[in-house]
Write a structure and sequence with these properties.
It is built from 8 helices and 8 strands. With about 240 residues, the protein is of the alpha+beta class. The protein folds into 3 domains: about 1-70, Arc Repressor Mutant, subunit A, CATH 1.10.10; about 80-130 and about 205-235, YebC, transcriptional regulation domain (Alpha-Beta Plaits); about 130-200, 2-Layer Sandwich (Alpha-Beta Plaits), CATH 3.30.70.980. Strand 1 (about 80-85) and strand 2 (about 95-100) form a beta hairpin. Helix 2 runs parallel beside helix 4. The protein is globular, with a radius of gyration of 18 Å. The two termini are about 15 Å apart. One of its GO terms (cellular component) is cytosol. GO terms for molecular function: DNA binding. This is Probable transcriptional regulatory protein H4683_000088.
């Protein structure tokens, strides 16, 4: 799973470098999840997961609180959760998750970002079947065996635990996100280099330098769109 971890790190580094954009995206996601259920992270597990993810990106508490208060205030602003799938250079695959208050605008912008950068949108299901929804945690200061023992004692199931580049990486089912995090916090592990819900490609693809440059331009164009929350792909960007 080394390449998968590298792609997650690359994605997080990219988002960390664009703080205003990431703050806005998390603010929108927190608002939507808070509005869908109880606007209290302790009573709304989905909201708690989003808030915990936001903390790993250093989203200020003021932004988190403002989004929750907006939901509490009964704002009439509504967003649709839409997923787009498509292809880039040389068989690369891309999933784009969005939150939008204007479906036509978002579809047009996503299609244009693909088309102007050597890609094209596919139909629903054309790409997603090659990805697995996954909860991923990165932490330091423990070995993989120590983390495995801790999670086994807490009766928490995971897919895999690996040591990569001085970090321990935990892969689990998405519905185990909260259980994994709480089990680790209960033994004093409160800092995570990554705590994320993601879509991991079943097989990674390595592009030629020219194709990779075009691919990265396409990904940048998609991530720059206001309505885009997450972009997942099957390209190993470290080679």
């Amino acid at each position: 799973m080394g390449r998968k971890w590298n792609n997650i790190k690359e994605k997080k580094a990219s988002r960390d470098a664009n703080t205003s954009r990431i703050y806005a995206k998390f603010g929108r996601e927190i608002y939507v999840v808070a509005k869908q259920g109880e606007p209290d992270p302790e009573l709304n597990r989905a909201l708690k997961v989003v808030v915990e993810r936001a903390k790993t990106y250093s989203v200020p508490k003021a932004i988190i609180d403002r989004a929750i208060e907006k939901a509490k205030g009964g704002s009439e602003e509504n967003f649709d959760e839409l997923r787009y799938e498509g292809f880039g250079p040389d068989g690369s695959m891309v999933i784009v998750d969005t939150l939008t208050n204007n479906v036509n605008r978002t579809a047009s912008e996503v299609r244009a970002a693909f088309g102007k950068n050597g890609g094209n949108m596919g139909v629903s299901g054309s790409v997603a079947y090659m990805f697995d929804a996954t909860a991923v945690f990165g932490l330091e200061g423990k070995t993989a065996d120590e983390v495995l023992e801790l999670l086994m004692e807490a009766d928490v199931e995971v897919r895999d635990i690996l040591e990569e580049e001085e970090a321990v990486i935990v892969y689990a089912e998405p519905d185990q996100f909260h259980a994994v995090q709480e089990a680790l916090k209960n033994v004093g592990i409160n800092e995570f280099t990554v705590a994320e819900l993601t879509m991991l490609a079943q097989n990674d693809l390595v592009l030629s330098p020219d194709s990779q440059a075009q691919f990265e331009k396409m990904i940048d164009a998609l991530e720059d769109l206001e309505d885009v929350q997450q972009v997942y792909h099957n390209i190993d960007l470290d080679d």
